[in-house]
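User: Show me a protein chain along with its predicted structure.
Assistant: Here is one chain, sequence first, then structure tokens.
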Amino acid sequence: MQRRLFSADHEAFRTTVRRFISNEIVPFHAQWEQEGQVPRQLAKRLGELGVFGLAFPSEFGGGDETGYAYQVVLDEELARQLVSIGSLRCHLDVVLPYFRSLATPEQRQRWFPGLVTGTLLTAIAMTEPGAGSDLSAIRSTAVRDGDHYLLNGSKTFITGGYLADAVIVVARTSMDPDDRRSGLTLLVVEDGMSGFVKSRKLDKLGLKAQDTAELAFDDVRVPASNLLGAEGQAFAALGHNLARERLSVAVEAVVAARAALNATLDYVKERQAFGQSVGSFQNTKFELAAVATDLEAAQALVDRAVEELDAGALRPEDAAMAKLFCTEMQGRAVDRCLQLFGGYGYIRDYPIARLYADARVSRIYGGTSEVMRLIISKSLGI
């Protein structure tokens, strides 16, 4: 079906990033997966291309572009060529909006130039060993001590935490037994601060080119000037930005499922079994027809949600519906596609194996499918 999300400017951007991906990502992606992270040079090149600065003010070298569709174009082109930009996607799509919406004028002068050029990489540290989808269970603490905060605690599953120069840490500055959501604060912890330790990179099932780290904070003295937003009001900021984050997961789920379908179509046309192509069997046709139909429905939902986001009208339950439907669809689609590869689908030499491994976390991070159902049901008044 015809899509109405993109303008001529978006298509021009598509041409640029497609060429960039072909020349500067595809030849090296396998090596980055082995190393467990993308190189910092890739961030600088993306900065030079203008990708990181699109939504930043022009006074800092940005493009003054607030529309989300440019990010969708980038995701689609990466998936088309079966590669990723690792944790830089989280930096671009999840973390930068916090800086853009919450930074003070002084912080803008200090951080925005590096964010635009790709020389300052970021991460956001919410999840703890005992606090995942339930952010109100966060136990990391930050105690005011003069013109600093004394930060203690640990974080896990932090995307980009190993490469990051600056990490937005969610910590508790006060406790109200009647309202556990209050008292959470955002602090920007910079690499090299005493007591801040990047413990290790986690060895994950999928997303091999994306560094995911454990972080520890032992009496880290964070300057009060690194407070992002108002003290004790982090939950409101997190709630606002989580809708966008969940939509970004939905977008990624759709583009990855489409990549799986395309790879499978190519394979079944060439693969022979019982003297004919696998694609000629009725079962193959029916399976891929079902995948294509699911994809069309998910694409329509995502495009509508992107339009709502750009209009400032995307509700949390809308984002939850998009994430729930699209990630569950991704899981079904990639599984069905892998089945048609037979034994080769289990071999990492074939892209479907990586797409299968990468897909599983989509139903977990950014809020699990179960949490998405709770959000949706609450919006129904039950």
